[in-house]
Specification:
The chain has about 130 residues and is an all-alpha fold. The chain has helices spanning about 5-25, 35-50, 60-85, 95-125.
Amino acid sequence: MNLEKVIFGFFITLAATLNFGFFVGDIGNPVVHNGVELAAAFVASLVATVLKFGDRTQLGAIHLATSLVADLQLMAAATVWIWAAHISASGMSSAHMSVVVSLSAGALLANLVSVVLMVSEIIQVRR
């Protein structure tokens, strides 16, 4: 068993599951979306991105691209959250939360593409 592949798979899957956990719930209700979970999804996504830098294959380039998209979406979601909660005079509203959750959904899609690529790579290696 290759420890590097285990760690790589762990962080890709962790990023996707944390993002999914944040995403689930009423899109405009701030009570059902946890900021700590969003931060954890962002950190896991950043770690997964760093782990993808060494791969020089075409599939590795696509893995890196999907991680960069997820990172960008989660960074934008965190920025909107911080702005709405700490800077905006109106505070966190359902409109702000729907933007944060929508950006998280885009990151979730990128994470799912990355997981599918990882599984397809495993299937190809076994054949």
